[in-house]
Design brief:
3 domains; 26% strand; alpha+beta; D-amino Acid Aminotransferase, Chain A, domain 1; 4-stranded parallel β-sheet
Amino acid sequence: MRLYFMLVRRVPPVPSPVLVEAYEILRRRGFEIDSGIAEEILLRPDELVPSYDLYVLKSHTELSLSLAGILHTQGARLLNPYQSCALTQNKLVVTRILQNARVPVPRSWVTADLSLLRELVEETPLIIKPYMGHRGVGIVKVRNQHELRAIPNPETPVIIQEYIEGDGEDLKAYVVGEQVFAVRKRFSQASFAAPGRPVPVSEEVRDLAVRAGRVCGLALYGLDIIESSRGLFVVDVNYFPGYKGVPHVGAVIADYIEDYARARPTLSALALAR
């Protein structure tokens, strides 16, 4: 079987150890593997047709998602499914879906005019972020009107969430099918590139992670969770994250991709099909 991995440019530009491990295992099992970065390839969208048994979407860029959409309309198999990736990329939509499924999320607003937040920021500190962003780019915390006035109006609408006070570290839940792993690390603009510290997964975190994946239609995904005095809050969902800090997860991912490619009926595959 032939697999194609749709990749994103890495910072720094070195191969993902997780993917390297998964590639080696899958090749030993007889898979032919190719990969590419959409922004580094010249393509004819009108001539793009499926030529692989399975495409694995490991990029969040607009171009990669657009090409995945074209492949989807031409009948290609994608992991994660295209519709789920497109949905998850939009933080406004996914926040509402999680809320409907009783997955705890912060109170949220949306606007393109930050002046409308003047009264709100006096009530609660706010987190402002692009509604289509990823990797923590463009996230700003504001605590008062003075900090709000220092931020220029965004070129596109932003999602605003109430700031949830945690313990100073983010809890990241990483999921492969129905297997849940967790790491802790401090958030920063560059923390996406740093591995987390593995920690045990509580039953509450496991239940939260699995439920979020089911309602979003994802099998390879991650959650950013804040642990607060008010309980757990999911502040972000990402399809096929880096799994940084999870020991030997490449083998787990390879197993899942093989089962999915060969259409073996795992629980998560059945849930995605439904």
